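Write out the bound-state structure for citrulline.
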Amino acid sequence: MAHYVDSEVGRLRTVLLHRPGPELARLTPRNNDSLLFDAIPWVGRAQDEHDAFAAALRDRDVEVLYLGDLLAETLAVPDARAEVTAGVLADRRLGDTLRDSVGRYLADQDPRRLAEVLMAGLAHEELKPGPGGLVYELMDRHDFVIDPLPNLLFTRDSSVWVRDRVAVTSLAMPARSRETSLTRAIYRYHPRFAGAELLYDPGLEHLEGGDVLLLAPHVLAIGVGERTTPAGAERLARRVFAAGLAHTILAVPIAQERATMHLDTVCTMVDVDAVVMYPNVADTLRAYTVTADADGEPRAQVARPFLEAAAEAMGIDRLRIIDTGLDPVTAEREQWDDGNNTLAIGPRLCVAYERNVETNAQLERAGIEVVRISGSELGSGRGGPRCMSCPIERAPLS
Ligand SMILES: NC(=O)NCCC[C@H](N)C(=O)O
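---
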């Protein structure tokens, strides 16, 4: 099975999605902020919207893999099961008595149910009979013994393929950090990925997939902000250079704010030489061009305007911006609703949320075909079509 991605826009052949499930039903007004959702999604409608997203991709000959299915299949492998379970039980909040009890509960579950528990978490009241012990007794009945992972929906962030290697990332927010123990197990143990080499690991410096853009074969951009640290960008650069996967990396500082948590919230590619970009940052976004010195160490030049640095690294005259031409208020509203977070199915063909009427109209005026999907519920987690997808195979551009 081919696993290969060398650009943002090569024809998409295989993509990893996560159909939202019971983990979304864990969100309440008390925990939605810490679980990184801005509202409480209607789960059934979110699933309908997600099914329509998957159908839009399948209709265009894209193979859709589901994270939940891959995880259940992975957990049939004893080593995978042992590794993932040990990760959950290492949570220091559990204490010995509760840890033993949770360990026995997990050991009793078949792979599919275990996958469900690992994704949806385990509530205090679901661990029956209660094990007693101080930790369990002092917990609130609304507390989780195993925290749910509602942000699994955003498969973009927990792994990213660079050519034939996969970087399992290191997620910065506590609410998401356990996600990568699941993606890592899938890539290490699922037969479909046998032989896949890991380029990055969750124990390393923070790095999230939403910050990594494959601008062109051998050219990456890495956003540095709320989620990806300069040290994460440097570590990935060193590994990418050592593996010969890129000759140039652009490190792109972005504001450390929720609205711009990843580079792909302000900029995504829609053609081999075109991006859609949040107009309010288009003139100010800068990039450090990073190349390897004689020892393979990443070295940065002084920062320059992003578009200029990107065009030079990509070997093109100009990186076109689809000028959304929006007034600042509309631009801000549509950026918040992931208008700039498109998923390219191929050059000049992308998936976008229908609600971003103005941005989509401008894309079409610029010759980009837009496949509109509804995201009223999906968007409550603050992520669009690119955030919700991890390309595993694209037709090579190089
Ligand atoms: N690449 C992305 O921008 N992903 C969206 C992640 C949204 C999620 N609620 C988060 O805060 O991490």
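---
The two ends are 19 Å apart (CA to CA).
The chain has a mean pLDDT of 95.
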